[in-house]
Structures are given as structure tokens and as C-alpha cells.
Automatic annotation (TrEMBL):
<dbReference type="InterPro" id="IPR003439">
    <property type="entry name" value="ABC_transporter-like_ATP-bd"/>
</dbReference>
<dbReference type="InterPro" id="IPR003593">
    <property type="entry name" value="AAA+_ATPase"/>
</dbReference>
<dbReference type="GO" id="GO:0005524">
    <property type="term" value="F:ATP binding"/>
</dbReference>
<comment type="similarity">
    <text>Belongs to the ABC transporter superfamily.</text>
</comment>
<keyword id="KW-0813">Transport</keyword>
<protein>
    <submittedName>
        <fullName>NitT/TauT family transport system ATP-binding protein</fullName>
    </submittedName>
</protein>
<dbReference type="InterPro" id="IPR027417">
    <property type="entry name" value="P-loop_NTPase"/>
</dbReference>
<feature type="domain" description="ABC transporter">
    <location>
        <begin position="7"/>
        <end position="240"/>
    </location>
</feature>
<dbReference type="InterPro" id="IPR017871">
    <property type="entry name" value="ABC_transporter-like_CS"/>
</dbReference>
<keyword id="KW-0547">Nucleotide-binding</keyword>
<dbReference type="Pfam" id="PF00005">
    <property type="entry name" value="ABC_tran"/>
</dbReference>
<keyword id="KW-0067">ATP-binding</keyword>
<dbReference type="InterPro" id="IPR050166">
    <property type="entry name" value="ABC_transporter_ATP-bind"/>
</dbReference>
């Protein structure tokens, strides 16, 4: 198993230029995700959630501030295969089977797929796709494709998992099922997880802490701690304490300060 890694976002500023006009996308954004924790990042459209992930993945550079993964720059953690990524669009290669799609990060890192055969088989079981190893993406449902993307994100046994609205395109019923599965996978993998989501229910069900963002400029308005014990059961979705917390997150989103 990988050593645990924390993710520390420190004083990020990011300005984009749009047709000659400067637009402050992020203003002094700081967020510490302790090793092994599950953090949800929630906020209105355009507040800069995906920009934070892009900076955390070294896909773009901040104007000021830094992101470190286990104390190192993101590029180093990525090179060591310590990061797993899943986005809203599962982006599977249509000509590759389920198992070959899951193996893709190993191919990119130049690690022999043969040595990981047992791990790939375990992951297929973990995401409930036993029997579909040789299926092509076109033969799967949307939820199954998303589960392939989650398995692919986990194939390098990452210490850190970045998830950007991975279930955004799924219907409510399937989304809840995927939330329950993601919790199970996270409890097994212990990866430090940062989940970008628009779903308040999803954030409260899954996260240890929810970072609530406001926009224009994008900033962290507050952190809501989620105290529920794990494993969290589906019955939590109907618990009054759950609804009190979703109300608190909604209030924080709409401007009321987090207590
Ligand atoms: N490459 C870019 N060039 C110019 N502006 C950009 C670029 N990337 C992001 N932005 C702007 O930065 C802001 C934040 O975008 P970002 O995608 O991070 O928001 P978000 O919170 O993830 O939104 P959503 O919830 O809709 O996905 C937006 O106003 C967007 O237009």
C-alpha cells in the first residue's frame, strides 16, 4: 500500500484574461486535506472548483500560491503514479475493453500490465463489473462507464484521488448507488480524496469536511465538518441530522456564514 499523502492548497490566486479583460478566478484559496481524509468542494457554477483541481494536477500554474501533494509539487506525485483522477466525462477509449481501459494509466506510466493483472481483477470486482472485463464501453450503461473510470483512477493504487463531478451526468437513483459504492471503495483504499460536486446530499454523505466556495472572485467561504460515523448507511439520507447539515451547507452556499 502507498504511504499516505496530504494535499495542501496554499493562498492560490489565479487570474484569466478574457478578451483583454482580467478576470479573478481564484482569490487566496487555501485548503488543507489531511492524509486519508475525504474533502468535498462545493460552490456555484464558475466559482473555480475545476480550476483548483487543474492547479492541483499541475495542468495550469497559479499566479501566486502553491499546491503540494505529500509536500511535493503535483508533477512529482503524478510521475510517481500517486494521483488518480476521474471527471464527469468518463472519457473511455471506445476500442479498448473494460480491463484495457482500467489499465490505461499503467500503460502511460510504462508499468507492465501483466504484473497488475490481479489488481485489475480486484478493481473490477470492487466496482461491481465482474463478467464485463472484455466488454467495450459502447456495451455499458452510463453508470457502468463511470465505474470503469473510477477503477481506472484507482489502478495505480493512488495516495490521492481527485474527482470532478464524477456522477454529475447520472440520474438521482444511480447517483446514490454510486455514492454508496464510492464510500466503500474509499474506505478500502484510504486515498486522500478531493471531490468536486454540485450535490449537497452527495457531499454530506461522502465527505469528512465540505469546503464551501463563493464566486466572483472564487474563494473558500467556510468549512462544514461532517460528524457522521462510518460506514455511513443509505438510511442516513433520510435522517433528520443529515437534513440539518444539508440545510447548513445550503445556507453557507447562499451567503450565510458557516457557524
Ligand atoms: N482557460 C481559461 N481561460 C479563461 N477563463 C477560464 C479558463 N478556465 C476557467 N476560466 C474561468 O474561471 C472561472 C472558474 O472556472 P471553473 O471551471 O474552475 O469553475 P467551476 O466552479 O468548476 O464551474 P462548474 O461548476 O460550472 O464546472 C470561470 O469563470 C471560467 O470562465
Amino acid at each position: 500500500m502507498r504511504p499516505a499523502r496530504d494535499v495542501v492548497v496554499r493562498d492560490l490566486d489565479k487570474t484569466f484574461r478574457l478578451r483583454g479583460q482580467a478576470f479573478t478566478a481564484l482569490d487566496k484559496v487555501s485548503l488543507a486535506c489531511p492524509a486519508g481524509s475525504f474533502t468535498a468542494l462545493i460552490g456555484p457554477s464558475g466559482c473555480g472548483k475545476s480550476t483548483i483541481l487543474r492547479l492541483a494536477l499541475g495542468l495550469d500554474r497559479p499566479d501566486r500560491g502553491s499546491v503540494t501533494i505529500g509536500g511535493a509539487p503535483p508533477a512529482e506525485a503524478i510521475r510517481r503514479g500517486e494521483t488518480g483522477i476521474a471527471f464527469q466525462d468518463p472519457a473511455l477509449l471506445p476500442w479498448r475493453s473494460v480491463e484495457a481501459n482500467i489499465a490505461l494509466p499503467l500503460d502511460v506510466l510504462g508499468q507492465p500490465r501483466r504484473k497488475a493483472a490481479g489488481r485489475i481483477a480486484n478493481l473490477i470486482g470492487l466496482v461491481g463489473l465482474g463478467g464485463f472485463e472484455r466488454a467495450l464501453p459502447g456495451e455499458l450503461s452510463g453508470g457502468m462507464r463511470q465505474r470503469v473510470a473510477i477503477a481506472r483512477a484507482l489502478v495505480t493504487d493512488p495516495a490521492v484521488l481527485f474527482l470532478d463531478e464524477p456522477f454529475g451526468a447520472l440520474d438521482q437513483i444511480l447517483r446514490r448507488q454510486m455514492n454508496i459504492e464510492l464510500q466503500r471503495i474509499w474506505l478500502e483504499s484510504h486515498a486522500t480524496t478531493l471531490l468536486v460536486t454540485h450535490g449537497i446530499d452527495e457531499a454530506v454523505f461522502l465527505a469528512d469536511r465540505i469546503a464551501v466556495m463563493h464566486s466572483r472572485p472564487g474563494r473558500i467561504a467556510g468549512i462544514v465538518e461532517v460528524p457522521f460515523a462510518r460506514p455511513r448507511l443509505p438510511s442516513l439520507f433520510t435522517d433528520p441530522a443529515f437534513h440539518r447539515l444539508t440545510d447548513q451547507v445550503a445556507e453557507a452556499l447562499h451567503g450565510t456564514p458557516v457557524e
